[in-house]
Amino acid sequence: MVFQKVARVSDIPEGHMKGYTVGNEDLVIARIGGRFYCIDGICSHEESRLADGTLEGKIVTCPLHQAQFDMTTGKVSKDTPWATDLREFAVKVDGEDLLVDV
Ligand code: FES
Protein backbone atom coordinates (compact mmCIF):
# COMPACT_ATOMS: atom_id res chain seq x y z
CA MET A 1 0.00 0.00 0.00
CA VAL A 2 1.25 3.47 -0.90
CA PHE A 3 -0.60 6.16 0.97
CA GLN A 4 -0.34 9.66 -0.45
CA LYS A 5 -1.42 12.91 1.16
CA VAL A 6 -4.46 14.09 -0.78
CA ALA A 7 -6.30 16.55 1.44
CA ARG A 8 -6.64 18.00 4.92
CA VAL A 9 -9.26 16.82 7.40
CA SER A 10 -10.67 20.34 7.61
CA ASP A 11 -11.22 20.47 3.82
CA ILE A 12 -14.24 18.14 4.02
CA PRO A 13 -16.97 18.97 6.54
CA GLU A 14 -19.24 16.22 7.90
CA GLY A 15 -21.79 15.11 5.29
CA HIS A 16 -19.88 16.63 2.37
CA MET A 17 -17.67 15.31 -0.44
CA LYS A 18 -14.94 16.77 -2.59
CA GLY A 19 -13.17 15.73 -5.80
CA TYR A 20 -9.39 15.35 -6.15
CA THR A 21 -6.97 14.37 -8.90
CA VAL A 22 -3.89 12.40 -7.85
CA GLY A 23 -1.62 11.47 -10.74
CA ASN A 24 -3.95 9.84 -13.27
CA GLU A 25 -6.64 9.06 -10.72
CA ASP A 26 -9.80 11.08 -10.19
CA LEU A 27 -11.14 10.50 -6.68
CA VAL A 28 -13.99 11.64 -4.51
CA ILE A 29 -13.61 11.73 -0.73
CA ALA A 30 -16.54 12.10 1.68
CA ARG A 31 -16.86 12.46 5.45
CA ILE A 32 -19.76 10.36 6.76
CA GLY A 33 -20.37 9.75 10.44
CA GLY A 34 -16.94 11.14 11.29
CA ARG A 35 -15.13 8.71 8.97
CA PHE A 36 -13.57 9.36 5.57
CA TYR A 37 -14.27 7.29 2.47
CA CYS A 38 -12.74 7.45 -1.00
CA ILE A 39 -14.00 5.98 -4.29
CA ASP A 40 -13.42 6.66 -7.99
CA GLY A 41 -14.35 10.25 -8.77
CA ILE A 42 -15.64 9.57 -12.28
CA CYS A 43 -18.96 7.82 -12.87
CA SER A 44 -18.68 4.39 -14.50
CA HIS A 45 -21.51 5.23 -16.92
CA GLU A 46 -20.43 8.20 -19.04
CA GLU A 47 -17.58 9.77 -17.10
CA SER A 48 -19.32 12.53 -15.20
CA ARG A 49 -17.62 13.97 -12.08
CA LEU A 50 -19.32 12.55 -9.00
CA ALA A 51 -18.13 15.46 -6.86
CA ASP A 52 -20.55 17.62 -8.88
CA GLY A 53 -23.43 15.37 -7.82
CA THR A 54 -25.13 15.08 -4.44
CA LEU A 55 -24.40 13.16 -1.25
CA GLU A 56 -27.28 12.05 0.97
CA GLY A 57 -26.29 9.84 3.87
CA LYS A 58 -23.85 7.43 2.27
CA ILE A 59 -25.41 7.58 -1.21
CA VAL A 60 -23.73 9.66 -3.89
CA THR A 61 -25.83 10.49 -6.95
CA CYS A 62 -24.23 11.21 -10.34
CA PRO A 63 -25.22 14.64 -11.71
CA LEU A 64 -25.70 13.41 -15.29
CA HIS A 65 -28.08 10.42 -15.27
CA GLN A 66 -28.49 9.94 -11.53
CA ALA A 67 -26.72 6.61 -11.05
CA GLN A 68 -26.31 6.02 -7.33
CA PHE A 69 -23.32 4.58 -5.49
CA ASP A 70 -22.60 3.60 -1.91
CA MET A 71 -19.86 6.03 -0.93
CA THR A 72 -18.52 3.58 1.68
CA THR A 73 -17.98 0.71 -0.80
CA GLY A 74 -18.20 2.08 -4.36
CA LYS A 75 -21.01 -0.38 -5.16
CA VAL A 76 -23.65 0.80 -7.60
CA SER A 77 -27.28 0.71 -6.47
CA LYS A 78 -29.34 -2.11 -7.93
CA ASP A 79 -31.89 0.58 -8.83
CA THR A 80 -29.45 2.21 -11.29
CA PRO A 81 -27.98 -0.76 -13.19
CA TRP A 82 -26.77 1.37 -16.13
CA ALA A 83 -23.58 2.04 -14.16
CA THR A 84 -21.10 -0.45 -12.66
CA ASP A 85 -19.29 -0.64 -9.33
CA LEU A 86 -16.52 1.86 -8.63
CA ARG A 87 -13.23 1.18 -6.86
CA GLU A 88 -12.89 1.94 -3.19
CA PHE A 89 -9.60 3.32 -1.84
CA ALA A 90 -8.35 3.04 1.74
CA VAL A 91 -8.12 6.34 3.64
CA LYS A 92 -5.90 7.05 6.66
CA VAL A 93 -6.04 10.09 8.92
CA ASP A 94 -2.63 11.30 10.07
CA GLY A 95 -3.09 14.32 12.29
CA GLU A 96 -4.63 16.94 9.98
CA ASP A 97 -3.71 15.04 6.82
CA LEU A 98 -5.89 12.68 4.79
CA LEU A 99 -3.85 9.97 3.11
CA VAL A 100 -5.25 7.75 0.37
CA ASP A 101 -3.91 4.45 -0.90
CA VAL A 102 -3.99 5.42 -4.59
S1 FES B 1 -22.68 9.61 -16.35
FE1 FES B 1 -23.22 9.03 -14.34
S2 FES B 1 -25.15 8.12 -14.59
FE2 FES B 1 -24.58 8.63 -16.61
User: Helix-strand pattern, N to C?
Assistant: EEEEEEEEEE
Q: Count of DSSP E strands?
A: 10
CATH top level?
Answer: Mainly Beta
Spans of at least 5 consecutive residues with low confidence: none
Rough shape? globular
Structural write-up:
- There is one protein chain.
- By secondary structure, the protein is mainly beta.
- It has a single domain (3-101), classed as Rieske [2Fe-2S] iron-sulphur domain (Rieske Iron-sulfur Protein).
- The protein has no helices and 10 strands.
- A 4-stranded antiparallel sheet has the order 2-3-4-8, with no helix packed on it. Strands 1-10-9 form a 3-stranded antiparallel sheet, with no helix packed on it. A 3-stranded antiparallel sheet has the order 5-6-7, with no helix packed on it.
- Strand 5 and strand 6 (59-61) form a beta hairpin.
- It is globular, with a radius of gyration of 13 Å.
- The N and C termini lie close together (8 Å).
- The structure holds FE2/S2 (inorganic) cluster (FES).
- The site of FE2/S2 (inorganic) cluster has 9 residues, from loops.
Concise summary:
Helix content is 0%, strand content 45%. It has 102 residues and is mostly beta strands. The chain has one domain: Rieske Iron-sulfur Protein (3-layer Sandwich).
Describe the structure using short key phrases.
45% strand, binds FE2/S2 (inorganic) cluster, three-stranded antiparallel β-sheet, single chain, Rieske Iron-sulfur Protein, four-stranded antiparallel β-sheet, 10 strands, 102 residues, globular, mainly beta
